[in-house]
Design goal:
With 767 residues, the protein is α/β, with parallel strands linked by helices. It has a domain at 420-449 and 482-766: TIM Barrel, CATH 3.20.20. Helices cover 42% and strands 14% of the residues. The chain contains 27 helices and 24 strands. The chain has an eight-stranded parallel beta barrel with strand order 1-2-8-10-11-12-13-14, surrounded by six helices. The protein has a six-stranded parallel beta sheet with strand order 19-20-21-22-23-24. Helix 11 packs across helix 13. The termini are far apart. The relative contact order is 0.08. The structure holds methionine (MET) and zinc ion. Zinc ion binds next to loops.
């Protein structure tokens, strides 16, 4: 009998109950007890749901009020001193580390302003974890009992669970040294943290847990030798001293390059992601001892597609043939945290398309059916229905648009190159645009006010007509344009008032996309996203942004910048197809955007910005062929979208979010790029892009903060940049769009920025 296993379930609740409860608590509207109660209800529902679906191995401790890695930091007492001095209850310490602690001054105490710990992307997903931050003074000790409590809580409900915790090597390797301990290498703390893991595992065993899912996802990264070596130390200790069976769990990639590090470890078994890397089966199976279990992840925890049962069963059968039915478990590829909760909540999806989807709740039955199928159970009806749906999708016109395929097959290399090299383009652009030294601009969005949101809602609900809404948007554009002219910005934007979200706005107008009404997925803390779904071949039925940009240009003599989201970013922030390569999906998006870029140019827009903030996060986790291919096709897609214009049309691009590779950015061949910079106080970082051959704007202020840097601060920032970059290459702009700011701050921030640029312009004009 092959068992079924689910590695974790979304904790946000079917109707975002957790978000509502958490935010109400933060706002001081409800008590901690109220919040704890909601958490308990969500956990109970999740366990019961899984049990009712027939899942054999159900996870506990997959719940979190913020982030599962942060939970471990609290549990292991990895709490930097700056969060302990206010004597907060545990729950508030958790939130202080996750989101910072701000309190106004009172008569008896000064104001508190402690920033949050660093937040980092969880591998290549859109989930973010809070980075463990270690210092020489960190003292590991058990500081609570969350995993044990939640195990017992499930048990009381009659549900036997398998607790899940992030393992010691991954926990340390995902962390970093605190500011005061920069010489500390986190992995060197292994001997100190192991006893605390042992204590925790012993407590779980004492509570009755027979096995524990111990997540070691860093095994899919390129690991340094000392980290690889840490596995043996860690797991020999844990296995020997804890008295509980461990299932060492990996996901999101290929473990083979690190297989030697875990081969022969005294654990009960291993879990691998065979959705991402089915090819690893032979080698990982061969590395098992004769007793060890193989948990086979075949139901995708990262996407919304119905599992192709025939394909999944083949993989499980192959595993069975290698290790025997009693040592195989059928599982989700990863936790289901990254999928929306329940497809049943979607009332508006086209039924043809809806039949292709499977959200977390539906995936539970999938694991169960596959396990039954390979155990000889009778699931004929389920297999047949599944085959019908899979075949229908493969044959559907939505997934096969002959015109799109033909157009893509005709793309030539010339289509991905501008007509002339940068120098010639620049000369042509100087004529069209006639910009001063240190041209000033913004990144696109202006404050999304309450009024904007109210009117958009009214329009969506049909409470105002399209004409009324259009008039409202025009009025917003007028105000934004007028303001920019008043303070003397050089390249204007229309402010993006018509856009709900920089990806959704385009997805809604492109053919090949579907949208959910309730398909929320946790991004970080109480922030959830609802990614569009690429369901079929993508094309652009009609212009998407021309009307607004053209209108904006018609009311000013200054150049108006058109504003688009790039192909890589649209792909990365959507649920992609699993039946077409990422590269081809990106190229289809690029062609659709190319039409838009060309139409903007035709409409008299001669500066066009194509944002690619997600280009870095798309980089495959490991070095190798896949990564090498990505750094080719991702910039190439951008160039395919932007190379149809004349030399005199200036193409901008924009990036925010950390750690860009200058070589990667260079490959876009954009005339001007703007990058996030204001928070990088590292004096080395300023050099990073100094060889960038085209023009560049380093973001001069943090758009996430209401703080208004005074003019002289802007001047000294410009001063330090002018020392490193050729001054004729430089633009002056913020870090990113201003949509989350208030008007008052924005006005003062931009005024100071523009005035500082003017000072430098005059200085060099007279020099
Ligand atoms: C995350 S990048 C955002 C760019 C977009 N044009 C904006 O200004 O909001
Ligand atoms: Zn940005």
């Amino acid at each position: 009998m092959v068992l079924s296993s689910v590695l974790g379930f979304p904790r946000i609740g079917p109707n975002r109950e957790l978000k509502k409860a958490t935010e109400a608590y933060w706002a001081g509207k409800t008590s901690a007890e109220d919040l704890l109660k909601v958490g308990k209800e969500i956990r109970a529902n999740n366990w019961k749901l899984q049990k009712a679906a027939g899942v054999d191995i159900i996870a506990s401790n997959d719940f979190s009020f913020y982030d599962q890695v942060l939970d471990l930091s609290l549990l292991f007492n990895v709490i930097p001193d700056r969060y302990t001095k206010y004597n907060l209850p545990a729950l508030d310490t958790l939130f202080a580390m996750g989101r910072g602690l701000q309190r106004p001054a009172t008569e008896s105490s000064p104001a508190v302003d402690v920033p949050a710990l660093e937040m980092v992307k969880w591998f290549d997903s859109n989930y973010h974890y809070v980075r463990p931050t270690f210092s020489h003074s960190t003292v590991f000790k058990l500081n609570g009992s969350k995993p044990v409590d939640e195990y017992l809580e499930a048990k009381e409900l009659g549900v036997e669970t398998r607790p899940v915790v992030v393992g010691p090597v991954s926990y340390l390797y995902l962390g970093k040294a605190d500011k005061d301990s920069l010489d500390l290498e986190p992995i060197s703390l292994l001997p100190k943290i192991l006893p605390v893991y042992v204590e925790l595992l012993k407590k779980l065993a004492a509570a009755g847990a027979k096995s524990v899912q111990i997540d070691e996802p860093v095994l899919v990264l390129d690991l340094p030798k000392n980290v690889q070596a840490a596995y043996k130390t860690a797991y020999e200790t844990l296995a020997k001293e804890s008295g509980v069976e461990l299932i060492l769990t990996t996901y999101f990639g290929d473990v083979r390059p690190n297989l030697d590090a875990i081969k022969g470890l005294p654990v009960a078994g291993f879990h691998y992601d065979f959705v991402r890397v089915p090819e690893q089966l032979d080698e990982v199976a061969a590395a098992l001892t004769s007793q060890q279990i193989l948990s086979v992840g075949v139901v995708d925890g990262r996407n919304i597609w119905k599992t192709d049962f025939a394909k999944a069963i083949k993989v499980v059968e192959a595993a069975k043939a290698k290790v025997g039915a009693d040592r195989v478990i059928v599982a989700t590829s990863s936790s289901l945290l990254h999928t929306p909760v329940d497809l049943a909540n979607e009332k508006k999806l086209n039924p043809e398309i809806k039949d292709w989807f499977s959200f977390a709740t539906q995936k539970l039955s999938e694991v169960v059916v596959i396990a039954k199928a390979v155990s000889g159970g009778n699931v004929e009806a389920e297999l047949e229905a599944n085959k019908k749906s899979i075949d229908a999708r493969a044959k559907s016109e939505i997934t096969n648009d002959a015109a799109v395929r033909k157009r893509l097959s005709e793309v030539s290399e010339a289509d991905t190159k501008r007509k002339s090299p940068f120098a010639a383009r620049l000369a042509a652009q100087e004529k069209t645009l006639n910009l001063p030294l240190f041209p000033t601009t913004t990144i696109g969005s202006f404050p999304q006010t309450k009024e904007i949101r109210i009117n958009r809602n009214k329009f969506t609900k049909g409470e105002i007509t399209a004409e009324e809404y259009e008039k409202f948007i025009e009025k917003e554009i007028q105000e934004v344009v007028k303001f920019q002219e008043e303070i003397g910005l050089d390249v204007l934007v229309h402010g993006e008032p018509e856009r709900n979200d920089m990806v959704q706005y385009f997805g809604e107008q492109l053919k090949g996309f579907a949208f959910t009404t309730n398909g929320w997925v946790q991004s970080y803390g109480s922030r959830y996203v609802r990614p569009p779904i690429i369901v079929g071949d993508v094309s652009r039925p009609a212009a998407m942004t021309v009307k607004e940009s053209k209108y904006a240009q018609s009311i000013t003599k200054k150049p108006m910048k058109g504003m688009l989201t790039g192909p890589v970013t649209i792909l990365r922030w959507s649920f992609p197809r699993d039946d077409l390569s990422a590269k081809e999906q990106c190229q289809q998006l690029a062609l659709a955007l190319r039409d838009e870029v060309n139409d903007l140019e035709k409409a008299g827009i001669y500066v066009i910005q194509v944002d690619e903030p997600a280009i870095r996060e798309g980089l495959p986790l490991r070095e190798g062929a896949e990564r090498a291919a990505y750094v080719q096709w991702a910039p190439e897609s951008f160039r395919l979208a932007t190379s149809g214009v004349e030399d005199g049309t200036q193409i901008h691009s924009h990036f925010c979010y950390s750690d860009l590779d200058p070589a990667h950015i260079k490959a876009l061949d954009a005339d001007v790029v703007s990058i996030e910079f204001s928070k990088k106080d590292d004096s080395k970082y300023i050099q990073e892009f100094s060889n960038y051959p085209n023009h560049i704007g380093l973001g001069l202020f943090d758009i996430h903060s209401p703080r208004v840097p005074p003019q002289d601060e802007f001047e000294s920032r410009i001063q330090s940049i002018v020392g490193v970059y050729p001054k004729q290459n430089l633009w002056v702009n913020p870090d990113c769009g201003l949509k989350t700011r208030k008007w008052d701050e924005t006005k003062r921030q931009l005024t100071n920025m523009v005035n500082a640029a003017k000072v430098y312009r005059e200085k060099y004009a007279s020099a």
